Predict the 3D structure of the following.
Amino acid sequence: MDFKKQPVIIKAIELAKRLNIKIFLVGGPLRDLFLKKRVLDFDLAIDGDLKKFGSLLAERLKGRFIYHPQFLTGKVIYNSNYIDIAHLRDEIYEQPGALPKVIPIKDIVVDLKRRDFTINAFAYDLLEDKIIDPFSGIDDLKNRIIRILHERSFIDDPTRIFRAIRFAKRFNFKIERKTLILLKRAIKESYLTTISYQRIFHELNLILKEKKFDKMFFSLSQLGIFKKIFNKSLSYWNIQKLKKLKNFKIPIEIVFIYLLYLLNFRKPEILKKEERKVIEELDYFKKIKRRLLKVKRRSEIYQLFSSFSFSTLKIIYVLESPLRKRIKIYEKIKEIRPLINGKELKKMLERKIIKNLKEKDFSKILLHLKLKRIEGKLKNKEEEIKEVIRWTQGH
Ligand code: ATP
Ligand code: MG
């Protein structure tokens, strides 16, 4: 196969021979090679000193090695590519949904056995030059089938439910009959609630990044997965909204927040500050939407739209086309500043041009000036000064 001519693979093989360890190509990249996809980043598994192997390989590739001893994994980053390297491992699931305990091992077959689906559970022995395929993964790949390796798979790790759907839709594969029965059973028996929100969010983000994410979400919704986790399903129309946001090149993190909004997720303790803020603003938007659709005066447009942060405005802009004109106006007028600033107000106070103005009211008067300017009512500094005097006399 062509990948053996790749300089990184040649270097990795040389190094493994020198250190007298076994080395295998595994995981997604190997699967993708069999699917004739372009593969730039490889997944390797070794049975020797990972730190040593990773650092030496990084040195030879003029890259760097990031080592995670607690997971028995590491990553060599070179140019803009990377190679994931792991020690052969077994995983023990002490509780459904919890992260497994990782144990280093010597046997590649045991390592393959803990994997999710047959199409991800074969290896290529780079030294012996042969395929190791104990679960007929290559056959399943040819027949376009997603199949788990053992009956408890979805119970041990319910994130595999998301993964099954992700791979099935990405490659247009079918989930094998028994696998699908077990998948549905794990959903029905609420195993999804055993995984942390953090892990669920990770899976949802992986899906959002996929080209066919809409098909995947539709499938998740039909299987009742959202309902189980969020007590709310995702309608076809809501998925179209997410698609629209993505097509508009809105960053994935923001599309993800909108997804949480649609799913009615309102647990502040779990959300990041930015996520919480955008969701609150979207809730507020829903309340004032009708007013926004009617507003005409530029100063009112400014006041209403200034309650939204940049991310929220982006979402509204994409999804609410009748509001686009107003948002564009808002974007322009928000840059308008009064000619007078806080320093000058202070001077006016010192020179007793104005009285009765406390520093805490500075922002109020400056906003007042800004709104007047937005309305085109103040043409120059003199007019602004007059307005300040008038305002302070009125208060
Ligand atoms: P992708 O193309 O999306 O990266 P991948 O198959 O490479 O797909 P990764 O998440 O990168 O998936 O994981 C690499 C390999 O690790 C998988 O091919 C699979 O063998 C194994 N794996 C990952 N997640 C799990 C899991 N939850 N349970 C079992 N094995 C897993
Ligand atoms: Mg991968």
